[in-house]
Amino acid sequence: MSTASDSDGMLAEQLLRLTRRLHRIQKRQLEPIGITPAQSRLLRTVAHYERPPRMADLAERLEVVPRAVTSLVDALEASECVRRVPDPTNRRVIRIELTEAGRATLGQLRSARRAAAEDILAPLTADQRQVLGGLLSALVDGPDQRC
Q1: What is the reported pLDDT for 147?
Q2: Do the Cβ atoms of 58 and 96 come closer than 8 Å?
Q3: Which of 76, 113, 126, 139 could make an S-S bridge to 82, C-beta 3.0–4.6 Å?
């Protein structure tokens, strides 16, 4: 095995460990809000649409099966963060709309994410954070390598 392969393997392991740590921190930050990471992701996704999305739109954007979106919407609807509304042009279509409680929850989520980021980035200087941001952008925005 070459040194480059060893280094790449080590980097991959470090990224996986960092991801797990970030998930643990995020979960801890979300607990007081009473929302799961998956519900948080769905709520943020709904907020990005200009008009309320359909469940199929959400499933496609989140790259999950529609049934998973239904369960998440059910939970968020129970906590009054979203509501199902009929499409004004097609009564058979149901759209998912953010409520005022949902907007307030999004504000709490932003605060929780900032706190999680501060926690994980605390050991880095401002310059190191800037370099890390550039490196992460290169990885995130790189060519799609899906099979």
Answers
A1: 44
A2: yes
A3: 76
pTM (2 d.p.): 0.77
Which of helix, strand or coil describes residue 63?
Answer: coil
**Position 146 pLDDT exceeds 80:** no
What is 98-114 written as a DSSP string? E-HHHHHHHHHHHHHHH
**From the CB of residue 64, how many other CB atoms can be counted at a distance below 10 Å?**
16
51 within 8 A of 98, measured Cβ to Cβ: no
Query: Per-residue pLDDT tens for 112-134?
Result: 888 888 888 999 999 999 999 99
* Strand-pair partners of 84: 96
d(CA 40, CA 68): 14
d(Cα 136, Cα 4) in Å, to the nearest integer? Answer: 20
- CB distance 23 to 16 below 8 Å: no
Residues, the chain, total? 147
Strand partners, 95: 54, 85
Task: Give the 3-state secondary structure of residue 73.
Answer: helix
